[in-house]
Amino acid sequence: MKILRGSLMFALATILSFAYTYGLVKTTVQLPEISDLRDADNISNNLGYYESRAVRNSRQSVVRVMSVHDEGLASSSGTYFKIKGKHYIVTVSHGILGPCDSTYIIYGDTNFSKCRNIVARDDEIDYAVFEVDKLKGINPIKLANIPIGQKWKQSFATFSPLYYTGFPNSAGPLTFSGKVAGYARGDYVYMHSYAWSGASGAGVFDYEGNYVGLVLAIDVGKTMYGVQALEDMVVVVPSFKINWKEIK
Known about the structure:
- About 20% of the residues lie in helices and about 40% in strands.
- The chain is built from four helices and 13 strands.
- It has helices at about 1-30, 35-40, 50-60, 150-155; strands spanning about 60-70, 70-85, 85-90, 105, 110-115, 115-120, 125-130, 160-165, 175-185, 190, 205, 210-225, 225-240.
């Protein structure tokens, strides 16, 4: 009887061990590829419809902007647009160091494209728009994705959610959420989020997935300890400050 019971216990242990080992092997075999994890559409299923659309619009249109000149190398972020059948990148002016032919964009993992023509630039407001060839594998934003009229009031209402995807510290693309902290003089928005060097130019989207601005910089203030950067207070240029009529 004891022998039988021992045999049964041994058999059960063997079955459990096999099942555990098989489970590990099966799990290992079914691990996703790195490309699947990095895919722009790999977004949490826990997000609601509108939030998911906002994050997806942000991730699917982001590019990294690289500008090389005698002054050095600048790395920033940008948003891919399609306007009147042509394709453009919207970014910050301070990320463009030299002429158009010294500015490149990186999109996807290894895809490159070059600036064809700078069509709009304002160093004071700090934005630039330049034309590029059609980019494969990412989705452009359209002018219809920019709020009009009274819709701006809710987009920039205090505590309204905002989202952006960029390349802070040359890492990414990384996606961040934030909330409107306030509206400043000169038509700039303060977003409570996080940003670092390299995130400048990243497109900012509201809860409904509308393109409402671009990351300009983080706030810098003077204290008794000297100048300090407020990494969680992000300054945003509203997209209505861009002169879209210059883009033909």
